[in-house]
What does this fold into?
Amino acid sequence: MNTTQNNGGPAFPQASPEMVITGQSIEETQGMSLRDYFAGMALQGLLAHIIGVEGANGRTSKYAERAYCYADAMLAARKEQP
It folds into this structure.
């Protein structure tokens, strides 16, 4: 099962060709994907709330999975915008 994940493209795209590193593709020089950026922001909010309230209690992988669920939802919502 090979499914392509929508990563939203680069989070901080470089418009200038001279910013591309010789020998690397444009995608390799763009840094993190928008999906990773959204997930990081969602994770930051989740952890700030949950750890402050109850502590992580060894469930950190669940928070990371949930953060990517939020990131996927944000990417899907962007497609729905006119």
Notes: The first helix runs from residue 34 to 53.
